[in-house]
């Protein structure tokens, strides 16, 4: 079954679903009073998250009934990603942003075969930025564009990264780094997270890496896309899930980026491994910046796992 899948057809369907889901997201009026929570008060979910996922399931299952589906809102503890062709869906990545009407929100859709993404689509309906990739065919962004303020707006499709000759990666002290606070705020993983953040941002005199700055899109998928575009040099997170990263992972690697484990020593993480470091395309410096980043991870690193 896997080798008969027409990736271009799947890509067209994922774009169709993403655009329609984007209309649902923009039409919704999330109100803090009607928001649900999951693990804690910062782990939010809305009726729109659930409605968008049900919509995606209906369209995808209609066309590909034999494919599996792994989605954030229908996930049940212990469900594993298999080698079967599987749609991986985050109906709203950036739910906290969505609830607060902060426009870093997207739907993230991927097809994975043998647990590796082969088609990925990430769509932000507020900016109408559509990121997409098909395995072996490059990574693209379709976005509104105007050459000057008086020119009409046109839709432009550009290959990623934006700079076709990306500069070498310098050290962390020459980098813009994406991180996320996430919703887990106590325990070992929280300690690893904020100690690493302090090391990244701290001055050299304090033993820190003095990165140019830290950024949080509030969405793993949009962090991956910013790295793919070459706008962020490194993104580091543990605790998010396959549905947060599957599409962005392919969009990044098809743009020349790499994904390694957030914990030291693993150059080949899995999409469901819940520990990620994404590094932008560069002619040199990818390996060195990974090893520099790994050198500041507190003993043992994250204990998140598939
Ligand atoms: C979010 C991730 C983000 C993480 C948040 C949350 P959601 O996904 O994209 O990277 O830090 O805790 O998990 O819940 O908005 O789909």
From TrEMBL:
GO terms assigned for molecular function: inositol monophosphate 1-phosphatase activity; metal ion binding
Pfam families to which the protein is assigned, alphabetical: Inositol_P
Keywords, sorted A to Z: Hydrolase, Magnesium, Metal-binding
Pathway(s) annotated for this protein in UniProt: Polyol metabolism; myo-inositol biosynthesis; myo-inositol from D-glucose 6-phosphate: step 2/2
Source organism, top-level taxon: Eukaryota
Binding annotation for Mg(2+) 2: 90, 93
Family listed: Belongs to the inositol monophosphatase superfamily.
UniProt catalytic activity: a myo-inositol phosphate + H2O = myo-inositol + phosphate
Cofactor(s) listed: Mg(2+)
Binding site for Mg(2+) 1: 72, 92, 244
EC number per UniProt: 3.1.3.25
GO biological process per UniProt: inositol biosynthetic process; phosphatidylinositol phosphate biosynthetic process; signal transduction
SUPFAM superfamilies cross-referenced by the UniProt entry: Carbohydrate phosphatase (SSF56655)
Protein name: Inositol-1-monophosphatase
PANTHER family linked to this entry: INOSITOL MONOPHOSPHATASE, INOSITOL-1-MONOPHOSPHATASE-RELATED
UniProt keyword annotation of Magnesium present: yes
Enzyme class: hydrolase
